């Protein structure tokens, strides 16, 4: 994994203790982990300092970049701090602070990155009801039970910028539902077998 | 039970009661052709010129015959009930034999059409495969289990495919919920209601 020189240079700004107090750095790091794990920023970057905020923005951008890159490559926090110490010459206590934030936000950033991509509609829930047909306009005989199934699916929608929920509705007879349940159970069994084999 | 027809329906069928058996048999054939291939103007006009009536009369008679069939099927008339109903309409016994035969051969076809009536998408088939996502652009190393499914739904005679996916936890939930539905349909409550509704004569 290669990190561009420009990012390394911006990270070296961390050594500028007089410009980046611990307080500012804490806020930057908190923002960074929140932005990557839940798309929210707690603080307004440009209001962190009275002076020119160019350097703050440069540092912030590089922090976002290296955090995302290291998580994307599944790097441990030791590897992260190693990179900061040897390749960017960051002071030890500053590197430790970054390492702490990296370790804490690793899993949530990872989850976020895992969710990025093209996915098919994902089934998250199911609703069902049982009907019994008593009479219809073309058929005097009663019939049933008939199962009305509604699958709740979620898919990321780019215009909504969030998950779009859709329901897939269908009906089936008892025999058909039996067939469906049998197939689903078969798939569940398969997953469980794989999980058990893995544990042993 | 005897079925009662609307007056105009009866009038349309009156044409046949006065005809010899051969004509009734021909009309059964015409109606049967109509059921399978839709209306054929040419056959109607030939019949009209033979009997010296307008095409409309022939058409109404064919429709009337088919409607008689639909009503009989809707009420699931037994052979005896059908015979009695036809005789009350003024058909002779020989004509009735022909119509009964016609009813008997078309019963299953009409039944098939009737039950197709009001139906939305219906479960047809499900295929699944178990996948593990190993990498993606945003996450280079991962092991994400996914179950991809092809749900085939049938609407009328058309089959549509829905490609869906889920994770093992939701799959388990889905399987358990649907099994629950299945068990619920066999519960004492469900069977009691079904029995009561099944015995109901409406």
UniProtKB/TrEMBL annotation, chain A:
GO biological process per UniProt: sodium ion transport
InterPro entries hit by this protein: COMM, COMMD3
Record Pfam families: COMM_domain, COMM_HN
Residue stretches making up the COMM domain? 122-195
The organism's superkingdom is given as: Eukaryota
The protein's matches in PANTHER family, at most eight in alphabetical order, are given as:
COMM DOMAIN-CONTAINING PROTEIN 3
Q: Give the family this protein belongs to, as stated in its UniProt record.
A: Belongs to the COMM domain-containing protein 3 family.
Its name, as the record gives it, is COMM domain-containing protein 3
Species classification: Eukaryota, Metazoa, Ecdysozoa, Arthropoda, Hexapoda
UniProtKB/TrEMBL annotation, chain B:
Q: Which InterPro entries match?
A: COMM (IPR017920), Commd2 (IPR037354)
**Pfam families, alphabetically?**
COMM_domain (PF07258), COMM_HN (PF21672)
The chain positions of domain COMM read: 121-180
Among CDD domains, the record links this protein to: Commd2
Record-given protein name: COMM domain-containing protein
Q: Which organism is it from?
A: Ceutorhynchus assimilis (cabbage seed weevil)
Q: What is the lineage of its organism?
A: Eukaryota, Metazoa, Ecdysozoa, Arthropoda, Hexapoda
């Amino acid at each position: 994994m290669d990190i561009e020189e420009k990012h390394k240079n911006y990270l070296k700004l961390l050594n500028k203790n007089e410009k980046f107090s611990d307080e500012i750095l804490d806020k930057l790091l908190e923002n960074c982990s929140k932005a990557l794990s839940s798309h929210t920023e707690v603080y307004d970057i440009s209001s962190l300092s009275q002076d020119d905020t160019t350097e703050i923005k440069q540092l912030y951008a590089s922090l976002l970049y290296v955090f995302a890159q290291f998580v994307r490559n599944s790097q441990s926090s030791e590897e992260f701090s190693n990179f900061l110490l040897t390749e960017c010459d960051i002071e030890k206590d500053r590197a430790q602070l970054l390492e702490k934030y990296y370790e804490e936000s690793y899993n949530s950033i990872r989850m976020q990155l895992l969710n990025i991509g093209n996915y098919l509609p994902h089934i998250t829930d199911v609703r069902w009801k049982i009907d019994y047909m008593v009479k219809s306009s073309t058929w005097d005989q009663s019939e049933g039970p008939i199962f009305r199934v509604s699958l709740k699916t979620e898919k990321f929608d780019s215009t909504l910028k969030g998950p779009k929920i859709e329901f897939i509705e269908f009906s089936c007879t008892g025999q058909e539902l039996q067939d469906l349940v049998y197939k689903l159970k078969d798939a569940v069994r398969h997953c469980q077998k794989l999980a058990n084999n893995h544990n042993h | 039970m005897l079925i009662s027809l609307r007056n105009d329906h009866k009038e349309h069928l009156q044409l046949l009661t006065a005809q010899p058996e051969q004509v009734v048999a021909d009309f059964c054939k015409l109606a049967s052709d109509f059921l399978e291939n839709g209306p054929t103007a040419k056959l109607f006009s030939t019949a009209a010129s033979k009997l010296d009536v307008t095409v409309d009369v022939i058409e109404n008679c064919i429709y009337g015959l088919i409607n008689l069939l639909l009503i009989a099927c809707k009420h699931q008339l037994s052979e005896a009930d059908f015979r009695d109903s036809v005789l009350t309409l003024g058909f002779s016994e020989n004509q009735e034999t022909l119509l009964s035969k016609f009813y008997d051969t078309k019963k299953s076809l009409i039944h098939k059409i009737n039950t197709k009536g009001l139906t939305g998408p219906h479960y047809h088939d499900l295929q699944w495969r178990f996948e593990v996502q190993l990498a993606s652009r945003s996450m280079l190393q991962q092991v994400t289990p996914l179950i991809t499914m092809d749900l085939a739904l049938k609407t009328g005679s058309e089959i549509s495919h829905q490609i869906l996916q889920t994770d093992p936890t939701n799959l388990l939930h889905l399987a358990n919920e649907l099994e629950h539905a299945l068990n619920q349909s066999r519960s004492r409550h469900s069977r009691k209601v079904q029995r009561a509704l099944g015995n109901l004569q409406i």
